[in-house]
Amino acid sequence: xxxxxxxxxxxxxxxxxxxxxxxxxxxxxxxxxxxxxxxxxxxxxxxxxxxxxxxxxxxxxxxxxxxxxxxxxxxxxxxxxxxxxxxxxxxxxxxxxxxxxxxxxxxxxxxxxxxxxxxxxxxxxxxxxxxxxxxxxxxxxxxxxxxxxxxxxxxxxxxxxxxxxxxxxxxxxxxxxxxxxxxxxxxxxxxxxxxxxxxxxxxxxxxxxxxxxxxxxxxxxxxxxxxxxxxxxxxxxxxxxxxxxxxxxxxxxxxxxxxxxxxxxxxxxxxxxxxxxxxxxxxxxxxxxxxxxxxxxxxxxxxxxxxxxxxxxxxxxxxxxxxxxxxxxxxxxxxxxxxxxxxxxxxxxxxxxxxxxxxxxxxxxxxxxxxxxxxxxxxxxxxxxxxxxxxxxxxxxxxxxxxxxxxxxxxxxxxxx
Length: 417
Description:
This protein is 40% helix and 16% strand. It is α/β, with parallel strands linked by helices. The chain has two domains: 11-187, Thiolase/Chalcone synthase (Peroxisomal Thiolase, Chain A, domain 1, 3-Layer(aba) Sandwich), CATH 3.40.47; 191-199 and 234-406, 3-Layer(aba) Sandwich (Peroxisomal Thiolase, Chain A, domain 1). Strands 2-1-3-4 form a four-stranded mixed sheet, with helices on both faces. A four-stranded mixed sheet has the order 5-10-9-8. Helix 2 packs across helix 7, helix 4 crosses helix 5 and helix 12 runs antiparallel to helix 13. The longest helix is centred in the N-terminal third of the chain and has 23 residues, at 50-72. The radius of gyration is 22 Å and the shape is globular.
């Protein structure tokens, strides 16, 4: 991954739709140090090729996997299950095959290549490994998660499809999982449970977030105005099924009693007003919330629905600012922030929540096996974790540098002969 500042991306888009794009970027919560594919940084965003996409993925895969094998002491030949999730790019041979070939993995490795799963693909991969572990003991599994942007940068003028250029950035990671009992003392987290919700049968949910061509035949990623409503519904359905599995029994009983009381007595306006705004207290069963940083509006919505405070959503907001929305890998950047800030202590419970096209909401609960963050040089946030959250009054860099685009009569570009 080429590490270079992406100030805005492609300025030609700001020339055609300046006010709309500036508002979108300013309100997104994304900073100016996010990463982009090489072809975008080189000005070839409208001519990305399959080779650009494969190069983008291999840079991420090979770098993270090499570091993972060195850090864990596990060799590629010991891997029993390999799961790769990249939604937009699905070449042949598969991305899985490229990893197997590069690291000379065993011939009997169980390889899965997931595509089209959107931002929630990472936890789908974890759930797949979880089910594999139930069938066989003493296994090693690797989940590789990323997203390809290089061949899919939208260069048209459809506002609903231009938003993806503002929100999505390059990133990825690799995760090692095992069910070997003798390695429990070396593990950093233990999966307690997972929950998957899929609203694909609903027309509105299915079409709110999808890859398609615009009226001029330009391929892009469409984000509908109904996306927040579909996300809220998927999120509510997921938590409804997850809550009984992660909350203390007392909290569940209190919620059921309150619900019954509300049903019986809300006909009286006094009681109705008293019951407004009451939500399940997930903090009684969860210590940390690892939320998908899909955008500032999404984070604020989850914050309100779960009754969280700024401390709870700080990791997601800071991840969005520093790295942008890196699709399915985003939640692992959020987890890395918690580790770098030394928030994760032995016995803590971490709730991961991700949402993605389909429309899907997936979640899982982890238990921290030992204190984490002792060595900040071992996280993706090394070198700049102390700069987050920013102190004092900060000025949005996009508004500061490009605010002139929103003027009534912005300066005109002149050709140079």
